[in-house]
């Protein structure tokens, strides 16, 4: 199959290829037509990765399919790798798709091609022949963790022509944890160490911080080193849930989470998580910050969306009036309330079922920063000042003391030397004579590493920096941290890492002793 491409003045052939061309753990694998200049020549791995894929190949066109893992024939899973007849029978019984909430708009008499095109159009707004829809129903094979780094071979026939395609299944890099607890315990007297270790055992929990990259902020122009197909939720929704659940966090704080990322929500709920309120798509609210928590560990007291369009409902008149009357802050309130982005945060006030004590988690995403516009950083620090007042109001509403354990995770778009970080760390920031403050003693979990905050938590071709943090209040201590390391590619997202931000994990516990800030000498002695 070929056609004349006037723009390139060459004959482009269409050949049968795997899609995605590089198999990745948990991502459905199917067949599609791929453009190539010379069908008789083997394209390089990079050429294949960045090729244009046109039109998926339907299951009923594929015959005699056999799958091998490292040359050992694969025993098919239920619902994956079916024969054409089996697949047709299954389709009659499984009309529900991954996009179940919009499936009611599809007509039952549509062909598979029309149905899948409708799915794409409903999600992306337009039908793009470069998007090959990925779902379980039409997958030839879904690689699992046990297939990582192994060669998968597909042998099949199309129109009586035999094919054999091979590729190696990719998986994310190994994880490395740092043990932080001994650095904290070194400051305690010997008789208190055993008491502290008991508290660590009884109250320890794992919290995750992760900006998962919303589709509405994604474009090939901004991520030129990433294959286009891997940038959107059609692909990333297959990597994200397992990427998160692998570590079994007790609490998951996400930013740039989209209601349309249905598989992510579905998988987390199935795994026993509950979440804070979701935004309203009918109001074109695309993304938000969400907090998920394990229902086996926590009982919800109050779950709240902190929407900056509703400041009158979030703050008391005594809190809001000074902000409205000040010439320094008033204009920024208009900016924050009118923005469609980075203005929907979350709070989850929970009761720990193990200890019966209360703990408050928050997920924030401050206004984006820009080295050329200081106005952005001023907006951030005002935004954070408001959020911390909302935190205090929620504790007061439930008659909880201000030293209730508090964890605020987020993409702060701010590093250790900048305004919002300073406000969180010191509890106060002077803005042209206007004092922004909060009443909590906070510490960044990753600042307890011997080397301090990581070098970066986001890595793209236009920006690399450390702008994500897990902030914890005075009663909390760190026992372990997931190290970021140097194994990430120069630009994210990648095929196996589904965001431009890096996932952060901290094991924390409630301490009975005041936190001691260690000096560099203390760290060296340990």
TrEMBL record:
One of its GO terms (molecular function) is endonuclease activity. Residues 208-501 form the Endonuclease/exonuclease/phosphatase domain. Keywords: Endonuclease, Exonuclease, Hydrolase, Nuclease. The keyword Repressor does not apply. It comes from the Eukaryota. SUPFAM superfamilies: DNase I-like. This is Endonuclease/exonuclease/phosphatase domain-containing protein.
